[in-house]
Amino acid sequence: MIQQKTNCGFRTVFRVRYYETDAMGIVHHSNYLRWFELGRTEYLRSVGLPYRALEEQGIASPVTGIRCHYHKPARYDDEITLKVVVKAYKNTRLTMAYEIFRDELLLCSGESDHAFIYEGRPVAPRRSLPDLDKILSKCLQSDSTEV
Fold this sequence. Notes:
4 helices, 147 residues
């Protein structure tokens, strides 16, 4: 897997594996959501917020909503480019945006919404988690030109 840093936005390139496809060699729809999660966790790692470290500090960011739009199918052995950016960040909510390409052809796009929980309670990072807030605010500003 190749990872390329573009400001805060994140991009990774990988090949579709056989087990991700159905009997016709087409990627099963559920795998796009797995790829979104892969991109999101690697994005956070690339900006200094590895999810494991957040959890060790008592911070969680559960998915509160997800949207996925399928444009064209991906197939076994296709080289896929996954782009991830922070689309929105305000108070207790974070929205990540995803685009999945084969060459320059958009195959899938989507978004995931997340809340923030600290030690089991909803929390606003701006007040309670200033380091997290600073990084996500910077990424929102930087990523606004990416997707």
